[in-house]
Design brief:
By secondary structure, the chain is an alpha/beta fold. It contains 27 helices and 20 strands. The strands form 4 sheets. Strands 1, 2, 5, 6, 7, 8, 9, 10, 13 and 14 form a 10-stranded mixed beta sheet that branches. A 6-stranded parallel beta sheet has the order 17-16-15-18-19-20, sandwiched between helices. A two-stranded antiparallel ribbon has the order 3-4.
Length: 717
């Protein structure tokens, strides 16, 4: 058996170094800080906020950075506080018990390797941009909760994804912050010789070197490849500098490193996956690396590429997240082989054979090359991420299966889910713990268990919702003042943000990536109607957040127009744009908003998960029937706008905007403000219970991972 050098030893050394910085009674904080399990273990956040809440926030809620920079007097104060030591002991024992459970093998031949371009595990590790990364992070946490044999593989982007700053006109500007690896809860993986484990991937006309970092996500390990090495050229070092670079050359190099380099890194650490799960098309070149390894083991003449890939097909499954052809990245053959030709040639692959497999029309010599066709053709299973997305994907990729009826195209679906312990606010978590039974979070997909929400009194449920809304309002007030000052707003206007939002008003959220198909502009389609909805004795207030890709000027223009409309409304503290939307602020938004809005142009929403998070917290969804909501909505658990498509997009926008305003004016606001003699919105709360009963068990990551385990991973075994 090959000895593993998978970072376990390196992690132990890092923990020992941090422990030596701490007083003896606090030594457990060292190993806790190096495992993100603390972030979803009850009491985990309090371990650090109890010592110094302000400093912990300034440290980006990064426990390693926090402890390394904490004054000794604060450490000694905590080490002599019996109440704090009891808290520490309780969290440590819970985490130890969790980590000590036996591992459940998913496939008998080795772990599942989950390959993805981004992972949103925690705000202190900013190697994510949005929904794809959040889904991947939630997947890793859930596999840990279920003690499944899974490893994650991604890239360590030193500068992460963009940070956002809006100027006075509302135009988005971007900036990046480089990570300090010495203060992150990650460790560089070293081999038997004590030197960093490295892999090489031929890119351009040279060998791109990458080292490997280990991140503990509970029981599940995440490995991140990084090209910031002395032997690499400045161009090569930039490969893992930023997520979703605009340059095609850099992206192709990233995907080669993720796919080919990811397989080689696992080999170098002595890890042999039984199954590779490619989450989106970015890591599809892993197929070629495994095929090349297969060829090396065969005697006789090397088979053609398609036959080699057929041999390794059973080791790959593919999840697609993109419901439109334009969203699947493609490259001209010239740029593809300019960057990756060296790798392809070294693996002994005939370029024309590969090009054919990356195209819908294999006989074409001019069609761009794409990773999604390659992944679909060469994986044993392909799935979309919602029922409707499965239907859309079957239609979109039908040309890959000549002579096959659309309904028979072999693309299924596994609807996304969210990690309940991560996204459910402590207020709601504590309330449900009183009614759903001991260890209820381990059984989040138990439909019968959720019927107990009917036992929660109106007073308790409404009090929890009001607490979460108040917490959101307080966060918004503090952030909006800083946002306005930073973009040069008048001081009086900036300080007026301290009165922004009313904690008793109906609060609606629209927070997601600012792509044009998300249709943020529908909120402002009829400014007069929006003004009436907002400016009323029983008023509403909107919180809007999201980032546009640096090269997406169309999306930036939508945001800029929103700022212009906001000024004409003359209600600056009722419609707020919150800058730099990420995992720091998302939990407060999905917990505190009464209604979560989603207005995608159908059928372009593959799934969406933010609305699921809102539902977990007792928020109600108002959404176009697209993505997950087309299967989640039952008529009693929120509100829906027809998701059928129209040939005329302007007519569809007009229809959908009016439908939104009608629902807000005639149903949502009246129901929210209809109170009994105790000031409680009884009908509203009944809809919250209906939402929790129907959505919480179906859209948790527990159900999602069960589906992958039973329907995808075991479907051929």
């Amino acid at each position: 058996m090959t000895k593993r050098f998978d970072g376990t030893r390196d992690l132990r050394r890092a923990v020992d170094r941090l422990a030596r910085r701490l007083p003896e009674p606090l030594e457990d904080l060292a190993w806790i800080s190096y495992n993100y399990l603390w972030s979803w273990t009850p009491g985990g956040y309090e371990l650090f906020t109890t010592i110094d809440d302000h400093r912990f926030k300034l440290a980006g809620e990064n426990p390693v950075r926090f402890l390394l920079n904490l004054p000794e007097r604060d450490l000694l104060r905590a080490a002599t506080n019996n109440h704090y030591l009891e808290l520490l002991d309780g969290v440590a024992r819970r985490m130890e018990a969790d980590l000590a459970r036996p591992t459940n093998r998913v496939v008998p031949t080795g772990p599942v390797a989950f390959l993805c371009a981004e992972f949103a595990v925690h705000q202190s590790l900013p190697v994510y941009s949005g929904g794809l990364g959040v889904l991947a992070g939630d997947y890793l946490k859930e596999t840990s909760d279920q003690a499944l044999d899974v490893v994650g593989v991604g890239l360590f982007y030193r500068r992460g994804y963009l940070h956002q700053r809006m100027d006075l006109s509302g135009w988005q500007h971007e900036y990046w912050i480089e990570a300090n690896t010495g203060q992150l809860p990650i460790v560089r993986v070293r081999g038997a010789d004590g030197l960093p484990v490295k892999v090489q991937v031929p890119v351009w006309d040279s060998e791109l070197s990458a080292q490997v970092w280990r991140v503990n996500v509970g029981r599940t390990t995440l490995y991140l490849l990084d090209t910031e090495l002395q032997e690499n050229s400045p161009l090569e070092r930039w490969v893992t500098a930023r997520l979703y670079e605009g340059s095609h050359d850099i992206r192709l190099a990233q995907y080669a490193l993720l796919g080919i380099g990811g397989v080689r890194a696992l080999d170098a650490m002595g890890i042999t996956p039984g199954l590779f799960h490619m989450n989106e098309g970015h890591p599809a070149l892993a197929l070629l690396e495994v095929a090349s390894q297969t060829a090396a083991q065969l005697s006789g003449e090397r088979p053609e590429l398609k036959k080699l890939l057929d041999v390794s097909r059973d080791r790959f499954v593919f999840t697609t997240h993109t419901p439109v052809p334009a969203g699947n990245e493609t490259y001209s053959s010239e740029e593809f082989f300019r960057v990756l030709g060296h790798s392809i040639d070294e693996m002994g692959i005939v370029r024309d054979e590969l090009a054919a497999l990356t195209r819908i029309d294999e006989s074409s010599s001019t069609e761009p090359m794409g990773f999604s066709p390659l992944a679909i053709k060469c994986s044993r299973s392909t799935n979309g991420v919602s029922r409707r997305h499965g239907e859309v994907a079957r239609g979109m990729w039908n040309p890959l299966f000549a002579g096959t009826l659309e309904a028979d195209v072999p693309i299924t679906y596994v609807t996304n889910g969210v990690h309940l312990p991560t996204w459910m606010a402590p207020t709601m978590r504590n309330l449900l713990s009183r009614f759903l039974g001991y260890d209820w979070e381990r059984h989040a997909n138990d439909l019968n268990m959720w019927n107990h929400v009917d036992e929660i009194s109106d007073i308790d449920l409404w009090d929890a919702r009001c607490q979460m809304r108040l917490q959101l309002v307080e966060m918004i007030r503090s952030r909006v003042v800083v946002d306005r000052l930073a973009r040069g707003e008048d001081v009086d206007h900036a300080v007026s943000g301290l009165d922004a939002f009313d904690p008793t008003n109906l609060t609606l959220g629209f927070a997601r990536r600012l792509a044009t198909y998300k249709r943020l502009d529908l909120l402002f389609h009829d400014v007069n109607r929006l003004h009436r909805i907002v400016d009323h004795e029983h008023g509403a207030q909107f919180i809007i957040a999201g980032k546009a890709h640096p090269l997406d000027n169309e999306a930036k223009t939508v945001a800029k127009n929103m700022f212009t409309v906001k000024r004409t409304m003359d209600l600056p503290n009722r419609v707020i744009f919150l800058e730099d939307y990420d995992m720091r602020v998302a939990p407060a938004l999905v917990a505190g908003c009464d209604v979560w809005l989603n207005m995608p142009r159908p059928p372009m929403e593959a799934s969406g998960t933010s609305g699921m998070k809102a539902a977990m917290n007792g928020g109600l969804n108002l959404s176009v029937l697209d993505g997950w909501w087309s299967e989640g909505y039952n008529g009693q658990n929120g509100w829906a706008i027809d998701g059928s498509t129209m040939d005329d997009p302007h007519a569809q926008d007009e229809h959908d905007a009016n439908a939104l305003y009608d629902l807000l004016e005639k149903e949502v606001k009246p129901m929210f403000f209809a109170r009994d003699s105790n000031g409680i919105p009884v009908v509203w709360l009944s809809r919250i219970r209906a939402s929790l009963r129907s959505l919480a068990p179906m859209y948790s990551s527990a159900r999602m991972v069960d589906d992958y385990n039973e329907r995808i991973y075991h479907s051929h075994g």
